[in-house]
Specification:
There is one protein chain. With 457 residues, this protein is of the alpha+beta class. The chain has two domains: 229 residues, Jelly Rolls, CATH 2.60.120; 170 residues, no CATH class. It contains nine helices and 18 strands. A hairpin with an 8-residue loop joins strand 11 and strand 12. Helix 1 crosses helix 2. The radius of gyration is 28 Å and the shape is elongated.
Length: 457
């Protein structure tokens, strides 16, 4: 390996001159092509033993070790390879770093164009750089790769992982030929920013002095998704490389590789979201995230955390949602006692105490015949009544209906409740001029209703 000295200020000044002078630029480019690691414009601070904290990052490690550090089950690893990369360019983080990692467990994977062990050194005026002995090609230098072949569980249709890309190239070389990159190919690249751009210096977004790392900038925390075939195999290649020359290092942290089964698995990456099945481009993402932030919901599945946004809300679930909205997220109803008051809700039912309390507060009288119908989906018409009683009290009586929605004629049993819900800005209907009163309420719609009704979080 070869260590190279450089001065960051001088490199920046020369770069500006190169951009301004066409002839001079072309001549320097010829020199750089012949000697890519030489030249007065890119002379880095040399990485040395004093820059390395051996207790926070373990390096070198094997490809198998990296996969396990990301959270992949060893039994699901068919093959793992570094594809000839310099072992110094990979490592395993064993303590918190960068404000976000590890995402789960106690470890995460590190791929770098320099020394992986230097990732947690102080951020100062010097910029670390180290030339690796591994892969180079026509467009990139100091390339580090991790290639994995994984067995997909039989009940899974989506692969997910979290990552952040950091660099010493930022901010001086944004928009230049020194646009270091990170990709995750299956074979198409799924490591993109929230706008669909390849992860590179140009997508660092201006985050500076990244906490606990040596780097000058980093992307936001991103989560990548890849549709997979249940019971099949997934081939994925993670690559990070310097572009333009071999200096000013970039690094990616990888963690929380999780399989999931969801209807919301879109190939690509999104800004980090609370729920794996609610990406930031989902129509109700903000409302669902606000509901979670308020403590009203913990989702429908815990590992990985999911919300099940398209699932209908049952009347039992509604009882919990409403009482938490009224009394706060820490509310617990009184013990159910010897009876719930409803023939179809035994005292052993999971939401028995919630259902009994909802009735005790006068918000519901059940579904008829002494029953509550706990597992029946609540309709949008019923929800209008429940929400307004929860907000204004059980004695509340809305104004007479005038016929706002074409599918809710005056005389419909819940007409005035539905129109008042609209008048208060809690709903705009299910489409132009319609409310869909008999449709079941989905969990996504419920999030919107609750956040607006109770002004959450």
């Amino acid at each position: 390996m070869e260590n190279i000295m450089k001065n960051k200020i001088l490199r920046t000044l020369i770069f500006v001159i190169l951009m301004a002078t066409t002839v001079f630029t072309s001549r320097i480019d010829v020199v750089k092509a012949s000697h890519p690691n030489q030249g007065p414009d890119r002379r880095p601070h040399m990485a040395s033993s004093r820059d390395v904290n051996p207790y926070a990052i373990t390096s070198p490690v094997t490809a198998q070790d990296l996969a396990v550090a990301m959270g992949i089950n060893p039994s699901e690893i068919v093959s793992a390879s570094l594809n000839g990369s310099d072992p110094a360019g990979v490592g395993i983080g064993t303590s918190p770093l960068g404000g976000f990692f590890p995402r789960e467990g106690s470890t995460f994977a590190i791929l770098s164009t320099g020394l992986a062990q230097s990732a947690d050194t102080p951020n100062d005026s010097n910029s670390l750089s180290h030339v690796l002995d591994g892969l180079n090609n026509a467009s990139g230098y100091d390339m580090t790769q991790l290639a994995l072949t994984l067995k997909v569980p039989s009940n899974i249709n989506c692969a997910n992982f979290d990552f952040i890309f950091y660099s010493e190239e930022f901010p001086e070389f944004v928009g230049s030929i020194y646009n270091d990159t990170f990709t995750a190919e299956i074979p198409q690249n799924i490591a993109l920013d929230s706008n669909g751009n390849i992860i590179s210096i140009n997508t660092v977004y201006g985050v500076t002095s990244v906490t606990g790392t040596t780097y000058d900038g980093g992307t936001t925390l991103l989560r990548a998704h890849a549709p997979v075939t249940p019971g099949g195999t997934l081939n994925i290649v993670f690559t990070i490389q310097d572009l333009g020359d071999s200096i000013y290092d970039s690094t990616v942290f990888l963690d929380e590789f999780i399989w999931s089964n969801t209807t919301q698995c879109t190939e690509g990456a999104n800004n980090f979201t609370t729920f794996y099945d609610v990406p930031t481009n989902y129509w109700a993402w903000k409302w669902i995230d606000d509901l979670y932030g308020s403590g009203i919901t913990g989702g429908c599945i815990s590992n990985p955390l999911q919300y099940c946004p398209e699932s209908p809300v049952t009347r039992a679930q509604m009882a919990v949602f409403l009482l938490r909205g009224i009394h706060g997220p820490s509310y617990t109803p009184p013990a159910v006692g010897g009876s719930t008051g409803f023939a179809d809700v035994p005292t052993s039912y999971w939401a028995a105490a919630w259902i009994k309390q909802l009735a005790a507060e006068g918000i519901t009288g059940g579904c008829g015949g002494g029953n509550f119908c706990p597992d029946t989906s609540v309709t949008r018409a019923q929800m209008a009544v429940f929400l307004l009683k929860s907000k204004h009290g059980v004695a509340y009586n809305p104004p007479a209906a005038t016929g706002v929605f074409t599918d809710v004629p005056v005389g419909y049993w819940a007409d005035k409740w539905i129109e008042q819900l609209s008048a208060e800005g809690i709903t705009g209907g299910c489409g132009p001029g319609i409310y869909c009163p008999d449709n079941p309420v989905t969990r996504a719609q419920m999030a919107v209703f609750l956040v607006k009704t109770f002004n959450l979080p």
